[in-house]
Design goal:
Blueprint: H1 2-24, H2 33-53, H3 64-84, H4 95-107, H5 113-125, H6 130-151, H7 159-168, H8 171-184, H9 191-201, H10 204-218, H11 225-249, H12 254-264, H13 271-279, H14 283-303
Helix pairs in contact: 1-10, 1-14, 2-5, 2-8, 2-9, 2-10, 3-4, 3-6, 3-11, 3-12, 4-6, 4-13, 5-6, 5-10, 5-12, 6-7, 11-12, 11-14, 13-14
Length: about 300
């Protein structure tokens, strides 16, 4: 399993580098990134999920203690980072400062579970973990988006409902429901349809990695050294270590603990930049942190 994971990570690194070089050199236009991301989010990843769920293999759902062992450290790291950045003088603790702190805390606790973690986990651990990864991904998005709204002082009446809608009514969640219902019904899907879904699902990992490289080549990078180093330490080193510790304390079995730590070691997701753009805070820094986190994540995952 370790040799397989190492081979996959080398392929991931090469695919990211290929996407970066293709756009950075001008061989491909930077405009290719947007249609690729739409294809991945609306077709490729949903196809991967449906394909994994309709296979005649037992599915695995996460146990409550497995979820606790992951999300207790995630919440801890988010709040710890947010409080650590609190200005000493209350007069400077305005909404702009709160939103800046929220963006940085989000980046130190948000893992790219759906976009990159799902295809990597399926390739490493098998199709049976797909439903488990989706539960982690949806819960992760929901928890951290709610924390972001609360800590940025932007939560308004109806905002929580909107956040729930944006998290739950997505192609990935709908695909999970379709795949699960298809698995329950007695009829066998047509072979041609299953084959088409399988072919589409195989595009997820290469396209996701290529698109990540293309995205990193598109934006200018302007980081602040101390917030960057602190964010990388919290996201790529402390968070996986805390998840491993919680798995040990909660007696999570070895295989599930490995999946937990694997997800925690995923790089910071692109949603950090989306959040930074919404708040108009730290956008260029967010791109730099995502890029640095992606590189460091490859090293951490190769060590696991």
């Amino acid at each position: 399993m370790h040799d397989l994971a190492s081979t996959i990570l080398i392929c991931v690194a090469l695919l990211i580098l290929t996407g970066y070089a293709a756009v950075r050199s001008g061989y491909l236009s930077a405009e290719i990134r947007q249609p690729l991301m739409l294809f991945i989010n609306h077709i490729s990843v949903p196809a991967l999920l449906v394909n994994s769920l309709i296979q005649d293999r037992p599915l695995t759902l996460p146990e409550p203690r497995m979820l606790l062992a992951y999300f207790i450290p995630v919440t801890t790291v988010f709040m710890m980072h947010w409080w650590a950045l609190k200005p000493r003088h209350q007069a400077t603790n305005d909404s702009t400062s709160q939103q800046r702190r929220t963006v940085l805390a989000f980046g130190s606790s948000y893992s790219n579970i759906i976009f990159l973690g799902l295809p990597l986990a399926v390739a490493t651990f098998g199709d049976q973990v797909a439903l488990m990864i989706i539960v982690f991904g949806v819960t992760n998005n929901l928890l951290l988006l709610i924390l972001a709204e609360l800590t940025s002082n932007r939560l308004k009446p109806g905002q929580l409902v909107q956040t729930l809608r944006q998290t739950l009514l997505t192609p990935v969640v709908i695909a999970a429901l379709v795949g699960f219902l298809t698995r329950l019904q007695p009829l066998t899907p047509p072979t041609a349809l299953v084959g088409t879904i399988d072919l589409l699902s195989k595009t997820t990992l290469p396209l996701a990695c290529f698109c990540m490289g293309a995205t990193l080549a598109t934006f200018k990078i302007q980081v602040q050294p101390y917030p960057l180093l602190l964010g990388l330490f919290l996201k790529n080193l402390l968070l996986p270590a805390l998840v491993a510790l919680c798995c040990y304390l909660l007696a999570v079995d070895q295989q599930h603990a490995r999946i937990n730590v694997f997800l925690a070691a995923m790089p910071c997701g692109f949603y950090m930049y989306i959040l930074a753009s919404r708040f108009e805070q730290m956008q260029l820094h967010a791109i730099g942190q995502i890029m640095a986190s992606s590189l460091l994540s490859l090293l951490v995952l190769s060590w696991l």
